[in-house]
Amino acid sequence: MKLKHTRREIKSIDLLPLINVVFLLILFVLVAGRPTTNHPNQIEVAQSSREAPYESAALSVWLKQDDKFYLTGDDPLSLGELTDYFAEKNAADQGLVIELVADRRAHAKALLDFRQAMARAGVGELRIKTEFSGTATAATTTNRGAK
After folding, report:
1. Counting Cβ atoms within 10 Å, is residue 17 exposed (0-12), middle (13-18) or buried (19+)?
2. Range of the domain at 123
3. pTM across the whole model
4. Phi, psi of 29 (to 5 degrees)
5. How confident is the model over 19-54, as pLDDT tens digits?
6. Do residues 83 and 118 lie in contact, with contact meaning Cβ atoms separated by under 8 Å?
7. Vertex 142, ends 83 and 40: CA angle to 5°?
8. How many domains does the structure of the chain reveal?
9. Does 127 reside within a domain?
10. How far is residue 103's CA from residue 62's CA, in Å, rounded to a whole number?
11. Cβ pair 123, 100 in contact under 8 A
């Protein structure tokens, strides 16, 4: 008994759709990757032992390693200037949340002074931005009774 051997013709594989899919995946990873934070590279945020969902605040203040406060740019502001700025924005009347992005190398005294100044200005809620497992979280502090 003789078997018929049929030769199959090998067709070329079209790689163009595969290349398109790979480029789309690369583009997706670049766009949807880890989101950037709104603090400068010089600030190392503190580590948090408790994870909380991150909610951005309307107003952000940076406390850098030199224990000085910054809104934007390179010019530090005093606590009096910050309270005047938040008074102009009506932060207390509107119930706006203020986010403090504090460098973990900054001293606690500057942090406590900021909290007391915001309490005197009538700001009700402060959020301190921390880092937990590589993602940004926010610890919420309420300023009620902190005078």
Report:
1. exposed
2. 59-142
3. 0.55
4. -65, -40
5. 999 999 998 888 887 665 555 555 666 666 666 666
6. yes
7. 60
8. 1
9. yes
10. 8
11. no
